[in-house]
Amino acid sequence: MPLDLSRIEKKAISESVADQLRLAILRGEVAVGERLPPERELAPSFGTNRNTLREAMRALETQGLVVARQGDGVRVTDFRNTGELSLLPDLIRVAEPSERNEMLTDVLLMRRRMAVEVAGLAAQRATPTQIARLQALFARQQAHDGDILLTMQTDLELYRAMVDGAGSVVARLMFHSLGRLSQAFVERVPALLYVHPQYLLHMGGAIHAIGERDPARASACVDTLLTDTDATLLRRVELFG
Question: What stretches of the chain show up as alpha helix (H) in DSSP?
Answer without folding.
Answer: 5-26, 39-45, 50-62, 79-82, 88-94, 97-125, 128-143, 148-166, 169-188, 199-211, 215-240
